[in-house]
């Protein structure tokens, strides 16, 4: 409704502006008994944080998370988990010229048009800084999925006109984090890096796309139609700032395939269960998971903050203005969006797992720490 | 949650299976004072109904809607509008062979995997027949939007490898309904029709895509991030059966554009308001509407019901089987999906209009009919 | 939001006016595999229906339910269940004088003040006729609860100044349906009946209250605070028209009890589980069920439709008017509200059961009928 | 769903345990342009905070709130407001004996039964400390209501057997905060204080009740049935820990009133609008506000933490135990619950005001501070 909540049973609620006091996220619906520490969250935040390489903004944010609630002796209790990440390197002054003269293609104007005002430092609430909250929540989701044999991975498969060849899931696991571009095909990563450098030197920016995949998701998840798996995945992906396309399976190309070529016969798998002979369907049939890997792709337009001279108008003075967006900005979005995509995919899957009753408390292997507060009923019938 | 509800303030709740007793949809949150009759709904249902041309299924459904509640003397009262559409030409018998032997690439297996059972006649709940409910609800939404100067239109822009050139909104309004393919570019429509005939004769089917556009949507709609306009549009479009990609603005191509080329300077419009110099942004910046036309595209894979010989397995008997999907089926989805896309786009926009407080009761120009039940308070302060 | 939806996972959506075409209710989230027929619903509707005795309205509604979807061979499929009950004995003409001259203490004025109009025949949407939908949905919930060993029962414990002594759950089961007043204490029922007759003869009406109880509800249900069991029970009970108080456990009297007297020591039950030594807590501690019976009470004010001469004003003409509410009305609400209270209590409990993962598909003992569409995966790990 | 969210458009999300790191609350849906500072929140928190008098717990919590987001130059921006209140005086050690031996009539057992574990220090999540979040959110709601001419007030009207006579709204405003008991009838307050002292000296505690009232609420709010005003008020009040009854208008007494005596004729008010001749209906008819004052009452049972010797069982050791609940506790709940009741009533009303489109941005009289970021469209048609 108000844009700061995601998830039906695994509920994520966020707040924060780029240059505000702090970012915050509340996770409720997390099963009890999960071992969880700030380190589990920090590991993922570090993948997303600014200043990690030459192709990211130089803003110096340690992005240190503090967990305020929801734990007992290092294990989740089933009650809400509140997390806060202080903003430490905000320099709002540079944004004064844009207060009433919107930066081209940013959210400055639309936020003011919607609310009649806005927090303007560093883009305020419209900044991608908000995604730090999602990665924090996604880290919890990812840990639970991992204990259920579900793996989620993404990598950058195109930057500008540089396109990576298809890679295996294993290659994604192995190579994605090896380079700053987060492309799992090292030779392509090299070319991408060069292309990014070129645009950065020209004071320009460039678009790109990310391929994502999830393995081990059980069959039967998704509630067609309005809560089908693709519908909720679409909402999740289009929530990420600057996303302009989302697809799964054959995606946009599907329009050129015939039914005969795309249809997949049913076979029996090793256990004697029906399984499609291929996975052109991307793990989804009728809006519900088939048990095959779910895969897809999403596109990000070029960052709109560029140091080129551009034109704008000041709605206060009625004057036209030259504008040059200073600040510390990324020349391309996908490399830092990879952990965000993984977070949103994890949150989407976990939510469906909970709705489907597929989370097994025993796999969380939690104890209640020093004091065993756990209550084991003797009379199962009552449970 | 359960997949049969769409919308936050304009709430649509549906039920029904392809060969069940009836389809039903409840609309709540519709403003009071809208003149509404079954004819308003019927007009749109007729655009979606089966048997309307040679390239649609021959199933003979009149799709006659009955309004059970929510009106007084022909005007809405603000309370829930219940509608029912009886199913009249169901022939479930033909589906018996598929009960435990899933049709290739259909939802048969995933529904059974999710629920442990399913309504199997005609695809049951997984059938696109469900969209009759959406078109009924969308007809109400469309009427309200129309009274607020908002126009929504879609047309088929590609079938297989046959691609239509870009057309204007006016061409869409004029030509879309002129041909069975619902392509607003008549010469291309002709070619599409031929290509469809060719696949149909081969016992095959083919994919395609739809371009959609909305004009007159006011600036300031959308609640970033999880309820941004693109996020809710993505959910809406991916709810439609067989959708495999959704994009807006430059869409997937945005990955090859630089920031400099994609960014749009701000100018003043005739009234002195800031306006972007172009609309490569597709009417959306920062997840919020700019007031420019919203446009995008979505893809549908080829219908999976084809009379070709295919293979499946029977999970009851453990046998492999030959399967030939008989029944009455569409050789291509987009022509009949056009009114569905328009319905989902209308529902999405109206919901945001209501959330943004932009619906003006005075534009609904309703009276309360023969008896003026309208209450006009004399003391506006209390209102 | 719009008042026609109840439940989080077991979702009930309703429509209909007293004198409209039909009443309708959509139930989604019902587990698959429940044997269900129109007779299961009808049995409960007959307990609520008008004209069942001398102390209810004489309106002649058969209240016959039709199930439009959600079943296969007599078993639920997990997809939405749509039900319709036609209105057959509506006589709106009698309500013409009240269109712009609101009946005293009815919802006529507030509905018109809210919406600017209203469906005015028979009270329209404000009529208690709406509860026929709830009883239909509650019949499904009750059947599932029954299969899980949960029993829900209510009876009328006070009418005017005639108060019944406390009765046991067994007495409620045995005696409630024996008399028209639905009081489980037969001698008191007799007195209540006389008192009601007296008011009815005087052209007056009278208030009353209902005691309700649920047995077999497992411990651990409820999500404090805003979704605590009492919070959702409070919402459910106050949804019923004309309810003015709701309480559980010691209720309002609790204000006169000391902590020492109200507190209950913990003991071990037969299975060795902790159990409170008594049940002054009404089955709820910290907003969560203890496993002890949940009990409480709610009050209904006197029906506002009485044939006495009263005064009103006409907002159209500006005149004061004498008014005598003709029509067919109940002289007291609780006797017919008993099945409604049971329905709302059942819906509340079942929703918490689903949220707590306590519904056991095996207890639903469904098969898939003639054709066993059930899919039993061979590879449980994937499930 | 998970118990930590309240409100449909004005959304409150909370976290925190009694002895956890911090309490936190996120408010989204707050209109832009409201002048807001930490002092506005602090003023209300100070009314609820522990240690404020001899009849409250001696726990020393300053309850200092920090606002982390949602403001620009001291005015709200329409985006989420994140607030944190650190816990400073937690002494969990004292709770060790109760980890597996639940305190009588507390939430210790039910939380462990629900989650299999719990945060046990100071009652953890089950502690009334959570209500500090509600009072923080309610302070924002109250400020907006105040600017719309709506006043909300509560006072303690009964403690044990000491009952206050009815008082006027003006007396509530004048006297409630004058005494520690928060009873607006000073002579009764004195007696209540003595009675509380007596129980406190005996190592016992006592129940009580609160009368609440709201003035200036416009007619037409509430969405019958499941979102009627009483239904949502019931949910709100029963969310408060230890509430055992809620009523409005004549409440429980309504069962002894006849229709003739309770019904209220309609008259014209000074402006010529229909108005009921009295307010026995408590400001609500048909579940919708009439414009008359809304009033009601709720009951709290005695605090369960008492230093008396009691009995419990240890589910770990299987032993019976003597237990004496040490810690710092209130001998009676209503005095500190008064600001909590006002907060929940304010949140409920504001939510309905927003749903009804009744919040007037102009009354918020905000400017955008030093920099006027406000955007005033020149073309109203587009707005």
UniProtKB/TrEMBL annotation, chains A, B, C, D:
PROSITE patterns: CHORISMATE_SYNTHASE_1, CHORISMATE_SYNTHASE_2, CHORISMATE_SYNTHASE_3. It holds the Pfam family Chorismate_synt. SUPFAM superfamilies: Chorismate synthase, AroC. Its EC number is 4.2.3.5. It comes from Salinigranum rubrum. GO terms for biological process: amino acid biosynthetic process; aromatic amino acid family biosynthetic process; chorismate biosynthetic process. Coiled coil: none annotated. The lineage of its organism: Archaea, Methanobacteriati, Methanobacteriota, Stenosarchaea group, Halobacteria. Its cofactor is FMNH2. The keyword NADP applies. This is Chorismate synthase. It is an enzyme of class 4 (lyase). NCBIfam families: aroC, PRK05382.1. Pathway: Metabolic intermediate biosynthesis; chorismate biosynthesis; chorismate from D-erythrose 4-phosphate and phosphoenolpyruvate: step 7/7. Reduced FMN (FMNH(2)). The keyword Secreted does not apply. GO terms for cellular component: cytosol. Belongs to the chorismate synthase family.
């Amino acid at each position: 409704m108000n844009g700061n909540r995601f998830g039906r049973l695994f509920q994520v609620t966020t707040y924060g502006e780029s240059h505000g006091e702090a970012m915050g996220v509340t996770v409720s619906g997390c099963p009890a008994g999960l071992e969880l520490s700030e380190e589990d969250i920090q590991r993922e935040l570090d993948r997303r944080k600014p200043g990690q390489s030459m192709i990211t903004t130089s803003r110096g944010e340690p992005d240190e998370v503090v967990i305020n609630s929801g734990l007992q002796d290092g294990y989740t209790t089933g009650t809400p988990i509140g997390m806060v990440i202080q903003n430490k390197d905000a320099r709002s002054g540079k944004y004064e010229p844009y207060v009433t003269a919107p930066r081209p293609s940013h959210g400055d104007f639309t936020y003011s048009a919607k609310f009649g005002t806005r927090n303007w430092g560093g883009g305020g609430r419209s900044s991608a800084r908000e995604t730090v909250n999602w990665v924090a929540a996604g880290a919890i989701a990812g840990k639970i999925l991992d204990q259920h044999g579900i793996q989620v991975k993404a990598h950058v498969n195109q930057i500008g006109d540089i396109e990576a060849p298809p890679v295996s899931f294993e290659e994604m696991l192995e190579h994605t984090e090896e380079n700053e571009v987060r492309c799992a095909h090292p030779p392509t990563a090299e070319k991408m890096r060069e292309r990014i450098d070129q645009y950065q030197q020209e004071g320009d920016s460039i678009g790109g796309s990310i391929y994502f995949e999830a393995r081990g998701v059980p069959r039967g998840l998704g509630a067609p139609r309005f809560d089908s798996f693709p519908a909720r995945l679409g909402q999740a992906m289009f929530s990420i700032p600057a996303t302009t396309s989302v697809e799964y399976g054959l995606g946009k190309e599907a329009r050129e395939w015939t039914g005969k070529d795309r249809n997949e016969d049913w076979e029996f798998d090793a256990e004697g269960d029906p399984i499609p002979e291929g996975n052109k369907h991307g793990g989804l049939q009728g809006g519900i998971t088939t048990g095959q890997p779910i895969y897809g792709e999403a596109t990000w337009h070029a960052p709109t903050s560029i140091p080129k001279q551009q034109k704008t108008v000041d709605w206060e003075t009625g004057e036209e203005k030259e504008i040059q967006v200073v600040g510390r900005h990324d020349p391309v979005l996908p490399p830092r969006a990879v952990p965000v995509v993984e977070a949103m995919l994890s949150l989407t899957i976990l939510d469906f797992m909970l709705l489907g009753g597929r989370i097994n408390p025993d796999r969380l292997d939690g104890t209640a720490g020093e004091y065993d507060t756990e209550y084991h009923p003797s009379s199962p019938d009552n449970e």
